[in-house]
Amino acid sequence: MTRGLVRYQETGQFHFVTFSCYHRLPYLTRPEARDLFESSLERIRQRYKFVVSGYIVMPEHVHLLVSEPKKGLLDRALQALKLSVAAYRKERPFWQARYYDFNVFTDEKRVEKLRYMHRNPVVRGLVEKPEDWQWSSFRHYSTGAEGTVEIESLWTSARRGGALPVGFELKRHEV
Closest Cα partner for 13 from 74, 61, 63? Predict the structure, then answer.
């Protein structure tokens, strides 16, 4: 275990997670690599039973806004996610070790993190508008579109005819 690294898991909070490709190399530049990440994220989401509130796949890093898994711990789910992507790619090593994890303890902070991640490709000059970046949860929030990864939102809640998790009050216009 790395000295000084403290993670607050099993808190029932959402987590804003960031991890990068090895030495921040752009291993996720090609659409098929980003598609692989999305399909792996959905598979791991189902296996570990966690909620994805938001995500974005950038050329050299990824941001996730996720709940804690119902099966296992978050660090194990992220390890499985990283391994599932790396197994199908030729680049070695594929991922930087470790990840950044920020506990999201308020709805305001969750909205802030969603806005940050969705605006990332615009700030980087990859697209002009967030909806132009295909590999993120933005389109889901703006239109309700279903993608590869199931996003927990008002849209999915309405489709299920159920309620959102406690503390999950995001409105469409906030993203």
Answer: 74
SS3 of residue 107 by DSSP: helix
Using omega within 30 degrees of 0 as the cis cutoff, is the peptide bond preceding 31 cis?
Answer: no
Low-confidence ranges of the chain (pLDDT < 70): 1-8, 10, 162-175
103 by DSSP, 3-state: which?
strand
Looking at residue 141, what is its pLDDT? 93
Q: Determine phi and psi for 32, rounding to 5 degrees.
A: -65, -30
Residue 120 is encoded by which pair of tokens?
A: 């990332």
Among residues 72, 56, 51, the alpha carbon closest in space to that of 166 is found at: 51
**Residue 8 in tokens:** 């607050």
Helix or strand or coil: residue 66?
A: strand
Calpha distance 175→130 (Å, rounded): 10
Residue 110 exposure: Cα atoms within 13 Å on the Cβ side: 20
Residue 163 is given by DSSP the state P
Phi/psi for 18 (5° steps) reads: -130, 135
Nearest to 113 by CA among 105, 34, 75, 20: 105
* Placement of tokens 């849209």 in the chain: 155
Q: What is the pLDDT of residues 136-170, one digit of tens each?
A: 999 999 999 999 999 998 778 777 776 655 445 54
